[in-house]
Design goal:
It is a multi-pass membrane protein. With 374 residues, this protein is mostly helical. The chain contains 14 helices and 2 strands; from the N terminus they run αααααααααααββααα.
Length: 374
């Protein structure tokens, strides 16, 4: 494993986040967005995008004016451990919950479509084992792997979008706002839950070799927005707004109707590549970040014993039987709205703290300059 400092360039961070956060936006978010807003869900994406631009402007302000080691080490240095723990607790809760939901949702999908006769515990064990070794390999190798995996994931997405054009009916996207504005407002909240995951850049800042610029965040946000908008509109145009709401995995259902000519069909195994690429990277990255948060020395290598304990706890939690209905109800009612509020409040508070510290440092520097002059 490499050391935990300055090992990524912005392009590698971009690839890593698109692959990991893209799974949330592409798989977990879309069915909940359709449930909340139905036909108007694609309008919600267009409304949420400019709001998210304001969000990344605040995020860039925090990154730009934080110390060289990142925002969270700066908070710990300036305010002490207690304040630092209070500030990082919601983020740790998000990482733990999101990791559990990603694994659980991935296992449910695999069991339903590909491994129906395989015991769930075996699927859990295989996924956890793979992610364990990926996490121990380090964030640099995750980023390098993402550079190889993501291009094919994108090409497959473009392929399914183009080939399924013949079965799309754009008229199914209209009329809009036929049920009033409340579904649109709810839908915007769910879209922002996915787009606000750009916040993870703040967690990766200590690993960046170069400054993270606004254009990096803007490109990342735009790409994540496209990952929602593309399959969402395709699902409505292919299946209709009512039928799309009944699908648990609308993006996957688009693979099931894919046909190329008369003799090529049943290409949904390509979806397996997309899902596993995003899922394994997302789980491994979040467990890596948890290991960094709990590490005593932020500059040393990950503690293998600590990572092992975290994965054993994750595997143990997966052994607890949870009804699928309540699992998805929790995601819809609590998880997605909750992470939207966490990212929004954390970013606003962080921007305020950085602004106050910046003004105080400028004031102290001015006083010191006057004293030295006199």
């Amino acid at each position: 494993m490499e050391n935990l400092t300055k090992i990524l360039i912005p392009r590698q961070m971009f690839l890593l986040l698109v692959l990991s956060t893209g799974l949330l936006n592409h798989v977990i978010l879309i069915p909940n967005l359709l449930k909340a807003s139905g036909r108007d869900s694609w309008i919600c994406v267009l409304i949420a995008y400019p709001i998210a631009i304001i969000f990344i402007w605040l995020l860039h302000y925090i990154i730009k004016h934080s110390s060289h080691g990142g925002f969270f080490p700066m908070i710990r240095y300036r305010f002490g451990r207690v304040v630092s723990y209070l500030f990082t607790a919601p983020i740790i809760l998000f990482l733990i919950t999101s990791t559990y939901i990603t694994v659980r949702d991935l296992v449910i999908w695999l069991s339903a479509y590909f491994l129906a006769e395989t015991p769930v515990i075996v699927i859990n064990l295989l996924i956890i084992s793979a992610c364990y070794f990926i996490t121990l390999s380090g964030i640099k190798y995750m980023a390098i792997s993402s550079g190889f995996l993501l291009p094919l994931v994108v090409l497959l997405g473009i392929m399914i979008a183009v080939v399924n054009t013949s079965v799309k009916d754009p008229n199914l996207l209209f009329p809009v706002i036929s049920d009033g504005y409340l579904p649109v407002v709810k839908g915007v909240m769910y879209v922002l839950a996915g787009l606000f995951e750009v916040y993870i850049v703040l967690l990766l800042q200590p690993f960046a070799q170069e400054p993270i610029k606004f254009k990096h965040l803007f490109i990342l946000l735009t790409f994540l927005t496209m990952l929602i908008f593309g399959p969402l509109t395709a699902s409505i145009m292919e299946f209709g707004p009512i039928e799309s709401k009944h699908f648990r995995y609308p993006a996957y259902e688009q693979w099931r109707i894919l046909n190329i000519g008369e003799y090529i069909s049943n290409l949904d195994f390509f979806a397996l590549y997309q899902w596993l690429s995003g899922g394994l990277i997302r789980i491994s990255l979040f467990m890596f970040l948890l290991g960094v948060f709990f590490a005593k020395n932020k500059r040393e290598r990950l503690n293998i014993k600590l990572v092992t304990v975290l994965f054993l706890l994750l595997f143990s939690s997966l052994l607890i039987k949870v009804e699928t209905y309540y699992f998805y109800k929790f995601i819809y009612l609590y998880f997605l709205p909750g992470i939207m509020m966490i990212f929004l409040s954390q970013t606003a508070l962080a921007a305020l703290i950085v602004f106050v510290l910046k003004k105080r440092d400028e004031h102290n520097a001015k006083n010191n300059k006057m004293e030295s002059t006199t």
